[in-house]
Design goal:
The chain contains twelve helices and eleven strands. With about 325 residues, it is of the alpha/beta class. It is about 45% helix and about 15% strand. It has helices spanning about 15-25, 40-45, 55-65, 85-100, 140-160, 180-190, 205-220, 240-250, 260-275, 285-295, 300-310, 315-330; strands spanning about 5-10, 30-35, 50, 70, 110, 125, 160-165, 170, 205, 225-230, 295-300. It has a domain at about 5-175 and about 200-235 and about 295-315: 3-Layer(aba) Sandwich (Rossmann fold). The longest helix has 20 residues, at about 140-160.
Length: about 325
């Protein structure tokens, strides 16, 4: 087992939980953080912080010099904006990090990707053998496909011991993007189920289960050069997820469920109009949100079960109980970390 670890994106949701898990195990961990980032939690945990970002080769070289494994969680996320903005972080930043890893005696380079790299369509047990589309409609998904391809190229060409993990929708305490936005949509009454009245699958994964998969990938030499889909391993409908959030926060359950064809048309029209006028904020309907709420998102995790021994420790109900306890506490005390 490696003795020192670099976790990128540790000021964010996923990276922060990964860094915290390392600390709880008593394993030295460091990160790269911009001077403007909030690092109070990391400082309290005793994480070593290299000030800078993934565009600074000198900072990266310093951060890489004393580590045995890298867990790359840093990414620009979102469902709006030019693909060039996403590439600058998700592809170019990754390339800078991989360049610094060439020739280093690393035991592992864990690249945290996403199930969003698959085509925007219904999925029923889709596994890692399914090819990815050459082009996505949103910048985030497009850049994550390109990032995966880049990471695997460095494995093949330079021997960087890359493992690609594709988690689904990650939920848990301290998420500052998706769940807060969903809660606001429920509060405003704008939440809709496009198609099938919310009965289609959502590809959920509790943050604790993702952390578990990361540690399994670090421990298993068979994982090098491989790609793994990751979810909670149980069927969770969109309605079940949304209603759990609504009930926990004391908000009305959404009831409107426009047909998928209508949602597609509205998304095409609204998103096109927003792009035409150069909107910097995402409109109410985007293709990324339609994929999240409208399509059946069921992916096979059998490869991860078989090769990594991945058996999600936390059930959806237990994960959501912990998650919503955090948000209910935050609603009463906004200073909650």
């Amino acid at each position: 087992m490696s003795s020192r670890y670099l976790v990128t994106g540790a000021t964010g949701f996923v990276g922060g939980h990964v860094a915290e898990a390392f600390v709880k195990r008593g394993w030295p961990v460091s990160t790269i953080a911009r001077p403007s980032s909030d690092t109070k939690l990391l400082e309290a945990l005793g994480v070593t912080i290299h000030r800078g970002d993934l565009t600074d080769a000198r900072v990266i070289a310093s951060a890489i010099a004393d580590v045995d494994a890298v867990v790359h969680c840093a990414a620009k996320v979102g469902d709006w904006g030019p693909v060039s903005d996403y590439r600058a972080v998700n592809v170019d930043g990754l390339r800078n990090l991989l360049d610094a890893c060439k020739g280093q005696a690393l035991s592992r380079f864990i690249h945290v990707s996403t199930l969003g790299v698959y085509a925007a369509r219904h999925h029923y047990g889709t596994d890692e053998s399914v090819p990815l589309p050459a082009k996505h409609a949103d910048g985030y998904s497009q850049s994550k496909v390109e990032a995966e391809q880049l990471a695997l190229r460095y494995y093949k060409d330079f021997g960087v011991p890359v493992v690609v993990l594709r988690p689904g929708f990650v939920y848990g305490p301290r998420d500052r993007t998706v769940l807060p936005r969903l809660i606001e949509s429920l509060r405003a009454g704008t939440m809709r189920y496009p198609g099938a009245k919310g009965r289609r699958a959502l590809n959920t994964i509790f943050i604790g289960n993702l952390v578990q998969a990361i540690f399994l990938s670090l421990e298993n030499d068979r994982a090098v050069g491989q790609i793994y889909n990751l979810t909670d391993g149980e069927f969770v409908s969109k309605r079940r997820f949304v209603e759990y959030v609504a009930d926990a926060m004391g908000l009305p359950r959404p009831t409107r469920a426009p047909p998928l064809w209508l949602a597609r048309f509205l998304t095409w029209w609204v998103e096109g109009w927003a792009k035409w006028r150069g909107a910097t904020q995402a409109p109410l309907f985007t293709k990324a949100r339609l994929k999240f709420l409208g399509f059946n998102l069921d992916f096979s995790i059998e490869k991860a079960r078989r090769e990594l021994g991945y058996n999600p420790r936390t059930s959806f109900d237990d994960g959501m109980y912990e998650t919503m306890a955090y948000y209910k506490k935050q609603a009463h005390d906004p200073a909650t970390v």
